[in-house]
Amino acid sequence: MYLILNSEYKVMDICEVAKYVRRQSNGIVVSCPQDDAEAIYSDDSNTFYPIERTGFVAEGHTLVQVDSVLDGVVAGYYYYRNGEFYTSDRELDKLSKSPEKVKETVDAQGGIIDDLLVTILEA
What we know:
alpha+beta, four-stranded antiparallel β-sheet, three-stranded antiparallel β-sheet, 3 helices, globular
């Protein structure tokens, strides 16, 4: 399963089949490797998403492969970053301060974490 995200990590499309594509000089759009791509094509919604920002209207997009999507996640409303779905900056901030995320961060730095620190961060 794939997510197509805009530059702000908003889920723009959720699809089973997505391809990197480019337009040939004769105008025909063909599948291609990611390095040569100009857009991402969602077979499910029959929509093209430009990879690079083009002008003021079209923003850049990225393709992310995921194992599954949570029930209730809707394209155009949810965001996806660091393996988590969220709906607002407030939720993202709360997610980044969750005890699990804090522990991962501290452990990765070789430090230790205690219950008092978790309590402070949850507040």
